[in-house]
Amino acid sequence: MVLAGGCSDPGASDADRAAPAQSPRSGAVYATPQVPVYEGCYVSFDLDSVPADAGASAGTLSLLLAADPESMGGFASIEVELLDCAGANRGAAREAGWARVPVAEIRASLDVATGVAVPVAEGRLPAGSYDRVFVAVPRAWGIAADGRRSAFEAHVEPIVQPFVMPDGGRVAVTMQLTSRARPAGWDGGWNLFTRAAWVLGDEGLGPW
Predict the structure, then answer these.
(1) 33 alpha carbon, distance to own chain's centre
(2) Does residue 36 contact residue 155 with C-beta atoms inside 8 Å?
(3) Is 6 strand, coil or helix?
(4) CB of 152 within 8 A of CB of 18?
(5) Where are the beta strands (DSSP E) in 51-169?
(6) CA–CA separation, 83 vs 30, rounded Å?
């Protein structure tokens, strides 16, 4: 089992990591009420991975990210930095039962106007039923039309999106990220959340 603490971002300095704004009045560090801040790979991977050349019953899972066209802030795009922490899980526990798929793109730019999905992770997954997907996004920025960057406080969490991986098949799941304004009383700024997820190519499901 690989636990949360084993999947961090060693290349990032403390100053680089996304952090809540600091109040000039009290010097206290604020976070949005009742919303935890996750700065790494906090799920555990405890299902057996499937090598690409293995003959075991498995398929291929592709994970994509897309910006919500209804995101707040008027940003032209959302830039994200990812950890090599992505996959799917099965079972009632949100933080356990995960099978990892490799992250192919550590950085991605998501167009807000079109909401076009960008592939970021892909790998072999044991055949069967799954309940959730996740791509770790500890750092993100909103990019204005003039190039100005606004750091988000990222709360990108696992999201429920059931799917079945057929033996020898391929499933692609998109996670939609949305920016929302933080309360003015908490120094304003922007949060980034997981808003929805859907299986590509199945219009019957649509956003979950």
Answers:
(1) 21
(2) yes
(3) helix
(4) yes
(5) 58-67, 77-81, 86-89, 98-100, 107-111, 118-126, 128-135, 139-143, 149-155, 159-165
(6) 25
* Nearest alpha-carbon partner for 77 in 108, 105, 104, 103: 108
- Coil vs helix vs strand at 135: strand
pLDDT at 18: 37
Mean pLDDT for 120-136 is 94
Global confidence as pTM: 0.77
- Tokens encoding 37: 């801040």
123/104 Cα distance (integer angstroms): 9
| Token pair for 3 | 């636990």
Cα 207 off chain centre by: 16
Sequence-ordered list of residues with C-beta below 8 angstroms from that of 147, at least 6 positions apart, any chain: none
CA distance 174 to 9: 24
Q: How confident is the model at residue 143 (pLDDT cuts 50, 70, 90)?
A: very high
* Residue 2 backbone dihedrals phi, psi, to 5 degrees: -105, 120
Strand partners, 49: none
d(CA 14, CA 112): 29
